[in-house]
Write a structure and sequence with these properties.
heterodimer; A: alpha+beta; Helix Hairpins; Immunoglobulin-like; 2 domains; 5-stranded mixed beta sheet; 3-stranded mixed beta sheet; 3 helices; B: mainly alpha; disordered N terminus; transport (chain A)
Amino acid sequence: MAHPSQLGFQDAASPVMEELLHFHDHTLMIVFLISTLVLYIIVAMVSTKLTNKYVLDSQEIEIVWTVLPAVILILIALPSLRILYLMDEINDPHLTIKAMGHQWYWSYEYTDYENLGFDSYMIPTQDLTPGQFRLLETDHRMVVPMESPIRVLVSAEDVLHAWAVPALGIKMDAVPGRLNQTAFITSRPGVYYGQCSEICGANHSFMPIVVEAVPLEHFENWSSLMLEES
Amino acid sequence: MAGEGEEGKTKSFKLLGILDIQNIPCARGAVLHGSAASILVGLGHFLATSRVKRSFDFGVGGFMLTTLGSWFYCRYNNAKLRMQQKMIKDGLKNKVMYEGTSLDPTRK
């Protein structure tokens, strides 16, 4: 999960997020080199004694600063498109979960086999136990089996929301009257936090998302328990 | 709990405030190779021509090209390794799951 004053991405918990991290590193290196070049050119221009009032054109440099940016853009675009299409691949999900956004909580429905549904409210700060995270914990987590392809259908009951879990590389708008589909596979067991990512009213910052990836037998036990409670 | 994720990572050192060379795979090697090439090319050009400004230009050019080359070479090998690791991991999982059946991946 995120730590205080963190600037970079969280550790990847899904293959798609790993690819996104690698793409980000690749693009950052290109940006770093361009920044270095620009800084050097600024210093060179400021410190030069050369002045020429009669330069009208220069074909060579025009070709260089047209072709080079095009090459750089292609170097960035190709891996980017690869990941874009990777995210859209048909992945034959083992489980479908509906995540519905409300003001101001999420509700999850597991309707593949039985009719399991529950609400997920943020735990208020005064009710937290030591070790829990402020503004991130919920009373009920979305539990999923690890290393299984999961499909999430995201929608909303009232206003726009967005279901986001940065560690899994997922963000999907929750639009009333529309079903948006996203899918993920968790590479390892763990608890992954996210927050609503579309302004939705007074408590927009207080409707977090918690995904808990567990081994399959734990998931089966959890779902039996939840069905008994409901 | 909040600090546990940071213990596995080394402290970050960001060049120009953006490139974390400690925690990004291949970044440190690429920058070091680029710096070494920059010094060699710049110094070599100066010794050959005694032109200071032009030597600096060559040094920066050498830095950029070498960093880029080292970066892509290392990342390509890294990607190949990750792909192989993934295949081995899946192969082991399939072997454990299907051993003794007709789907056993080691069955010829």
